[in-house]
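Single-chain item
Fold in token form
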Amino acid sequence: AVVSTQSTGDWDVFRQTVTQKITNSSIMELEISNKEELEAANNMLTQILNDSANECCPTTYVSATTRDPPWATEEVNKAFQIMIDDLRVALTTKDDADWTRARES
């Protein structure tokens, strides 16, 4: 399954949620003076964004399977299977009569 959040969710609510979570966190009070403190602030911001996305942008699943085209009726599928079976026989036997039947099916 493919996960997509691009076309779903209310982006205004997302912005408000991010703003609220940042306001309620201590991220704005951090004094960043080295790489470790920068990494900690980055992790906090990433968590805020992930939590906000999970709350405001519902995950939807797109099926990985394709649907049959409208013309693929049971009759067409049976005819196709007969053609494949005849071709398989002709490839195996290499007999002229089998090749003729495969071409005509």
